[in-house]
Amino acid sequence: MTTNICRLTVGQAIVRFLARQYVERDGVEHRFIEGIWGIFGHGNVAGLGQGIVEEAPREGLRFYKPQHEQAMVHAAAAFAKHRNRLATFACTTSIGPGALNMVTGAGLATVNRLPVLLLPSDYFANRIPDPVLQQIEHPLERDVSANDAFRPVSKFFDRINRPEQLLAGLPEAIRILADPAETGAVTISLPEDVQAEAYDWPAAFFERRVWQVRRPVPEPEALGRLVALLKGAERPLLIAGGGTIYSEATGELRQLVEAFGLPVAETQAGKGALRWDHPQNAGNIGPNGSAAANRLSRSADLVIAVGTRLMDFTTASKTVFEHPQVRFVGVNVNPMDAHKLGAVAVVADARRALSALRQALTESGYRGVSEAYRAELSEAKAAWVQQVDDMRRPGPEGEALAEAAAIGAVNEAVGGHATVVCAAGGMPGELSRLWRPEDPKAYHLEYGFSCMGYEIPGALGVKLAEPGRDVVAMVGDGTYLMMNSEIVTAVAEGVALTVVLMDNHGYQCILGLQRASGVADFGNELRYRDGSSQQLNGPYVPVDFVKHAESMGAHAVFAPTAEAIQAALKDPARRNRVTVIVVPVDPEKRMPGTGTWWDVPVAEVSTDERTRRTREAYEAAAGRQRVVFSTEAGVGA
Ligand SMILES: Cc1ncc(C[n+]2csc(CCOP(=O)(O)OP(=O)(O)O)c2C)c(N)n1
Ligand SMILES: [Mg+2]
Questions:
Q1: Ligand 1 centre from 586 Cα, in Å?
Q2: 538 φ, ψ to 5°?
Q3: pLDDT at 509
């Protein structure tokens, strides 16, 4: 029956299929693949590229062209993060370098558990013209290509050597992308000849399909164990991770912690789960955290970790939980995360788990934490708020700005509902302490991969996800020099984002780390070579970032004071154009440490006395790491 058959190329079929995939959660449908990003080359221009021009307009799919393949994956990941993983983009590249440029973006998406669909092209399946331009010829394994580099950084990988393989490959790709526990980068490698081949597809393959996004309920036994542990605990602490926000569990979180007086510490991905000024919000945990949250973490006897991967920046490399009998409960849709730190695992959707927990606690007669513990949280929080006020205040007039004061000025000007976007450098550790989000989408930190270069394409992705929101990318000068060219894309798309660039002459956070590791200063600042010196120790290399940004079509402002920063941000024209605000900051006005530890190994032997002393301190600190936590029910028993 010819009516049940569609004859299309692989390229055309992919576009038509992707356009018709939807996800549904809480009774609301979302188009899952909102558009296609691509950079063309011989690998995809005639295959998938032809499919896009023929199918995408008819299907209502928009095409975007970035300036760098890595950046388009960042934009897609940021878009998905802002939309709580209910929508993303597909990304197409040519073979070889274009494809490999996406590998870093794939790693970022997979680490952060964000869905992105990658469609790199591959060399010919028929292998007749081999070796083609950009083909790596593996000497032993003819079926290995550059795209095999995607395997370790993808949650699903398929190579389509015959058209009909798509019939199984594409639905599986969408299933994994839409699954809250399995999601990450999904890669479908497309040999260039196969992309152009036609096939008689069953029409049913292109029917509109709605994928249900799972919200698994907690098992009653697991919930019962959690209730028993909580009732026996004297100093419980809840950690809110990114999963709390993706699951839209922030309302449930608030009700739970208000009902029982539980303190909440946030991770980088979880910051904003509660408003910064919510009385139960102790602030961020770990080496980038608040004094209040870290104080409570040290003495907590029960830690309920919700929607977090428990990375080293959350656990202070496993030193922040000092209570000898501390127990963990992992509430996570992903079993691997739920079981970390020897936790009692509640493998469930965060929203459903928190709601079930509140109900079960109420039914059990639980009255919440003690008055003394509540008072301790309030006092610690009040003291911390005061400290942050002090750190955000600009110094005396005429002195160079500290980065902390510049961040304070930005936050004052844009308020608690603009989305701040950041990923790498010193700023993540400053923003986590200083920024004051007033809703769960106001703080967008990519701190799973902490990838320099994410910020500007990431801000573009956020702006596409919610065009009405004010979006501010905070970038270091190092990050800006690594990846700035999506400013051109934002200009071309008419997407009004703002970039605040902190110029401190190079990689100051790594210089700080170098000093803390007992290593002499070298190789981190942007300096000229000093004569015949082996190191780059000459004067700073000046870069005119204002001119650079202007050359790409942005409106650029030099803002050396808190007032100048605020004036630039309050300019109403900012809402209609790409703005780059260049802020010179004093590299030596660093924020004070948090008194927590981060495991960065120090050289065991050295001719330098400083390094030897640092190694001693390192060994003492490493000795406080807790490698194994008890899995026995201990709290209150
Ligand atoms: C792609 C990538 N390369 C290297 C690093 C390691 N790294 C982390 S921060 C940093 C320096 C960032 O410099 P800048 O953006 O100027 O921020 P600052 O340290 O001055 O705050 C480097 C090299 C990284 N996170 N990502
Ligand atoms: Mg810098």
A1: 17
A2: -75, -170
A3: 97
Is any ligand 1 atom within 6 A of the Cβ of residue 464?
no
Nearest partner of 423 among 400, 386, 457, 470, judged by Cα: 457
The dihedral region occupied by 421, where left means phi > 0, alpha psi between -120 and 50, and beta the remainder, is: beta
Which amino acid is residue 180, in one-letter code? Answer: P
Closest listed residue to residue 98, CA positions, set 41, 153, 51 = 41
What pLDDT shows up at residue 636?
43
d(CA 554, CA 336): 44
Beta carbon of 510 within 6 Å of any ligand 1 atom:
yes
4 DSSP assignment: G
Q: Residue 637's pLDDT band (boundaries 50, 70, 90)?
A: very low
Other residues' Cβ atoms within 10 Å of the Cβ of residue 24: 15
Angle in degrees, CA 508, 511, 515, rounded to 5 = 140
Supply the DSSP symbol for 217: P
Q: What's the CA angle centered on 324, arms 259 and 373, to 5 degrees?
A: 30
Summarize pLDDT for 495-509 with one digit per residue, the tens.
999 999 999 999 999
Confidence label for 457 from pLDDT (cuts 50, 70 and 90): very high
pTM: 0.98
pLDDT(589) > 50: yes
Distance, CA 107 to ligand 2 centroid (Å)? 24
Can you point out the beta strands (E) in 469-623? 471-476, 498-503, 555-558, 579-584
Q: SS3 of 216, please? A: coil
Q: Is residue 478 lining ligand 1, measured as CB closer than 6 Å?
A: yes
Q: How far apart are CA 484 and CA 554, in angstroms?
A: 11
What pLDDT was estimated at residue 633? 56
- For residue 424 and ligand 1, the question of a CB distance below 6 A is answered with yes
Q: Which two tokens stand for residue 294?
A: 């870290």
SS3 439: coil
Structure tokens at 427: 């700023």
Ligand 1: does its nearest atom lie under 6 Å from the Cβ of 477?
A: yes
Q: What is the DSSP string of 230-254?
A: HHH-SSEEEEE-HHHHHTT-HHHHH
**Atom of ligand 1 at shortest range from CA of 476:** 15
Is the CB of 606 inside a 6 Å radius of any atom of ligand 1? no
Rounded-to-integer distance, Cα 267 and Cα 416, Å: 18
Tokens 């490999």 label which residue? 100
Q: Given this model, what pLDDT does residue 2 score?
A: 53
Residue 540 is given by DSSP the state B
User: What is the position in ligand 1's atom list of the atom closest to the CA of 480?
Assistant: 15
Contact call for residues 313 and 289 (beta carbons, < 8 A): no
Q: How far apart are CA 306 and CA 240, in angstroms?
A: 5
Q: Per-residue confidence at 530, pLDDT binned at 50, 70, 90? A: confident
Q: Which of 582, 596, 579, 600 is nearest to 546 (CA)?
A: 582
Question: Which residues have a Cβ under 8 Å from the Cβ of 626 and sit 6 or more positions away?
Answer: 318, 319, 321
Question: Residue 456 Cα, ligand 1 centroid: separation in angstroms?
Answer: 14
Between the alpha carbon of residue 361 and those of residues 28, 44, 228, 260, the distances in Å are 30, 57, 9, 9
Between residues 41 and 533, which one has the greater pLDDT?
41
- Locate the ligand 1 atom nearest the alpha carbon of residue 475 and give its number: 15
Share of the chain above pLDDT 90, in %: 95
What is the structure's pLDDT at 25?
98
User: Which residue's CA is the nearest one to ligand 1's atom 10?
Assistant: 425
Running DSSP on this structure, what letter comes out for residue 535? Answer: S
